[in-house]
Amino acid sequence: MGKKVLTESGKLIMILAGIAMNAFAVDVFCLPYNILVGGSTGIGRLIHHFAGLPVSTGVLIVGLILLALAWIFLGKRYAATIVLGTITYPLFLAVFEVLPVQQGIVEDPLVACLCGGFLMGIGIGLVIRAGGSMGGSDVIPQILHKKARLPIGPVMWGLDVAVLALQGFLATPNEIILGIMMVLTYTVVTDKTLLAGGGQVQFLIFSPRNNEIRQMLIDHGFGATVLHGKSGYYAQEVDVLVTALSVRYMNRVKDAILEIDDTAFMTISSVREVDGRGFTISMDA
Fold it and tell me: Quick one: which of 23, 126, 144, 214 could link to 150 by a disulfide (CB 3.0–4.6 Å)?
């Protein structure tokens, strides 16, 4: 029990550190240089322009709307996972908005763009690795994936591009290009942070409740294979569940398994490459 509490505390600290790092990057390296941003922060910037509200307040409004949509269309379990980011991200933005350093810590906007993208990428990567969320940035893609089977990745990119385009009238061509560079920078750094220690992981799961665990994996869109084996000590017939998935989902899946069987024995190992359906081949192939 104590070890579990420490583990959950470590995850919470990592999530909060990642959210704070992202908010710091936006307030210190992005907004002072008028560099465009995507997601809820970009919409908050538009609200600031038209309504005069602080960017942090605009982000909070957008986050609460997305939280409500998540509750309605994706269920309360999913909505619960984004509550922390929805509240703390605009809170950290509000804190960093009033710091003197917010006036500009570097002189060159290009340096600010690269520093901001780097910090945002690490922050987002830490949050995802800990099984958390920055807020509701993926709610719309998740809803469209659930209702229309649209791929999440391209939809997220499309929404980011749309938010950047909506801010076009607020910036010069140079600032628009810097915004695009920042998005590319934090995308690459996020992937590198997520892939640190291996891009995919493989689970070997031993549990008398493997049927329930297998169904949970399928319900979450992951594949699973059942292998038949024999225990070494008692020589009993056992089923071994095998699944491979991206490291970004590792903690989420591990927690879901332990919710079903808190005594399940599992090994999690990094794999160099995963090929096949769902990875290098479309699920529809």
Answer: 144
Q: How does pLDDT run across 15-34, given as a tens digit for each residue?
A: 899 999 999 999 999 988 99
Tokens 């006036």 label which residue?
103
Instruction: Give the neighbor-by-neighbor strand order of the sheet with 225-230.
Output: 225-230, 237-246, 200-206, 265-271
Determine contact, residues 245/201, Cβ cutoff 8 Å. yes
**In whole angstroms, what is the distance from residue 22 CA to residue 14 CA?**
12
CATH number of the structural domain spanning residue 231: 3.30.70.120
Using alpha carbons only, how large is the chain's radius of gyration in Å? 21
- Asked if 84 contacts 17 with a C-beta cutoff of 8 angstroms, the reply is no
Question: How many folded domains does the chain comprise?
Answer: 2
Q: Where are the alpha helices (DSSP H) in 1-51?
A: 2-25, 39-51
> Which segments of the chain are extended strands (E)?
200-206, 225-230, 237-246, 265-271
| Token pair 């999440």: residue | 152
pTM: 0.71
Query: 185 with 227, same domain?
Result: no
**Percentage of residues of the chain with pLDDT beyond 90:** 35
Token pair listed for 248: 């970004």
pLDDT in tens, 138-173: 788 878 877 887 766 677 778 888 888 899 898 888
The C-alpha atoms of residue 7 and residue 179 are separated, in whole angstroms, by: 37
Bridge partners (DSSP) listed for residue 259: none
Using pLDDT thresholds of 50, 70 and 90, give the confidence band for residue 68.
very high
